[in-house]
Amino acid sequence: MEHNIFAEGLPVRRRPRPFCLLVFGASGDLANRKLYPAFFSLYREGAIDDWFLVGFGRRPWTDSDYRKEVEKALGGYHLTDDDHRDFLERCFYIQGDIDDLAAYQRLAESIHTDRDLVSYLAVPPEQYQPIIDNLYRSGLSRRHSCASRVVVEKPFGRSGHEAAELNDFITERYDESSVFRIDHYLGKETVQNIAVFRFGNGIFEPIWNNHYIHHVEITVAETVGVEKRAAYYEQSGALRDMVQNHLLQLLALVAMEPPTSFTSDMVRDEKVKVLRALRPLLDLDIFANTLRGQYKAGLIDGQQVPAYREEPGVDPNSQTETYAALVAHIDSWRWYGVPFILRTGKRLSRRVSEIAVHFKKPAMNLFPQAFGGANQLVFRIQPDEGLTLYLNTKIPGLTDHSRTVSMDFLYGTGFGHPSPEAYERLLLDALIGDSTLYTRRDEVEASWAFIDPIRAAWDSGSVPLHLYEAGSSGPVAAQGLAERIGDHWRRL
């Protein structure tokens, strides 16, 4: 088998101990689209050595049936005979219902006690508790000789109250250090680079404060609609689905203080301080500083697409938002007076995720004829991961006219090989036991404390639902949020 040269240089601490990865929802969409390809990539790169992959599900499959399912999920890879034999022969299947304790006991008997166990819950949220309870009752959640960890996908509760109850339930059966609440945005290369960029370069950290930064803009825009997730999305909406986790995590990384060391608890201690310092939005503040919208029919890439209310499985009178925007403030010494404007939406004109740091303009404008505007630093998370710094420079010629130019860095061209998928990094961290890029329970509960009042006001109808055309930049009224802080959104 051919190994990636970069993986060969992995330090010992980045290689997991012998382990078993147990996947609940083994035939599901998440396992097939994300987990199996990410796990196989780690195998191809030589990042994992001694392992077994075990799928758990209700389908009456044999090991051979399961291996065919995994092989199908790896259809994008050119598999050699050695790949087939070495990888697929380490894949096994356990049939059982999530409520069937006997199936878990069979599972416990089949897993060697000298291996770490990582249980990945690639299932709907309502199945978390019965699975975790049976892992505990069968002795699989707390093993004496080896580690046992559980990976839980979002959404983690639908409110702060539900999140706290779920946290209590899980930590009665697993140590908090063994609970990995995944947010795949934290596995993206550019997101990880925010901390390196800030704390590894002496020229930026001194100006990373309210003396030099005017505002920070965070955007996660999608061109897709709800696809096959209508049942989930009708209960969630953009605020729960994206803002409570992805966008607030990005905000915390941009705004956190330098940790004393780059270890999991030190980093997460600083992130939770930011989330707790978010100024609560209440009553009229919610009306003035938040906006919700829903897409109607329109054109995406020249193709006519239906309105959200016309999507299969959606209530024709649905009030669920597919677009959410808000202005947030962090009441801390570093960030007091700096607005953070956040937006996310479906069926927008372009797929893009980015963080734009807008610096203040010079105190005196010496070049009024053609001054390009304030400097910006943009972290591009997707689709083209990288950084762009916008600077003003003189246009060559006999005048003093100036304009804005960009200095670009792309991961793909800068390092000569593509960045790993987010799930590769996060999965490897879970296998090792490094929770730096996972969210801790106090982070989850602090973010819900900020979101819950907004959610309650939106559900009561006190904030209007603005319709916007699919393929546009979102509701026209959203421009008002940016104008209130003296600027405008970056173009999508």
Automatic annotation (TrEMBL):
Gene Ontology CC entries for this record: cytosol
Determine if tRNA processing is one of this entry's keywords.
no
Q: Which Pfam families does the annotation name? A: G6PD_C (PF02781), G6PD_N (PF00479)
Domain Glucose-6-phosphate dehydrogenase NAD-binding, residue spans: 23-193
Q: Which residues form the signal peptide?
A: none
**Is Ribosomal protein found in the keyword set?**
no
The organism's place on the tree of life at top rank: Bacteria
List of catalytic residues = 246
The pathway entry for this protein reads as: Carbohydrate degradation; pentose phosphate pathway; D-ribulose 5-phosphate from D-glucose 6-phosphate (oxidative stage): step 1/3
Q: Which reaction does it catalyse?
A: D-glucose 6-phosphate + NADP(+) = 6-phospho-D-glucono-1,5-lactone + NADPH + H(+)
Q: Name one GO molecular function term.
A: NADP binding
Q: What keywords tag this UniProt record?
A: Carbohydrate metabolism, Glucose metabolism, NADP, Oxidoreductase
Q: What class of enzyme is it?
A: oxidoreductase
Residues that bind NADP(+): 58, 97-98, 154
Primary role: Catalyzes the oxidation of glucose 6-phosphate to 6-phosphogluconolactone.
Task: Write down what this protein is called.
Answer: Glucose-6-phosphate 1-dehydrogenase
